[in-house]
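Board notes (copied after class):
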Amino acid sequence: MSSEPAATNPFARSYTHGPYTVVEVSGEIDLATAGSLAEHLEAATGRPAPDVLVDLRPVVFFDCSGLRALCRAETRARERGGRLRLVSDRPRLHRLLRAAGLLRRFPVLPTIPGPHPEPAEPPGRADGTREAGEQPGGMG
């Protein structure tokens, strides 16, 4: 089994975003097109400890064939010590997951997380020292 990225097709494309493999899904995902999605999910979950985000925001229709592909990929990611999460800001996807009893299985994020910012330096002078009596965090 190869963990090479799957070729972009009209229904899915994959790319790296920071620590994540993002599978962006678009159009209508049904029995005829779920295989195109499954190719990308299989490639994304093919390495150890995958951290996969499935971006469903561009999707206009998604049925149980797509859910089946997601369930298989989530199981594969978990078996390899990783995880698979969904990205969607659409209430209808939440309703579909709830109706299928899958809302707890798939954490849904409203957007793709950005890079984690570096922790802010505590306030102090330019040379890194603090004023007398000043506490870290400026709570003096």
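Comment from the instructor: The radius of gyration is 20 Å. Helices lie at 34-44, 64-79, 91-99.
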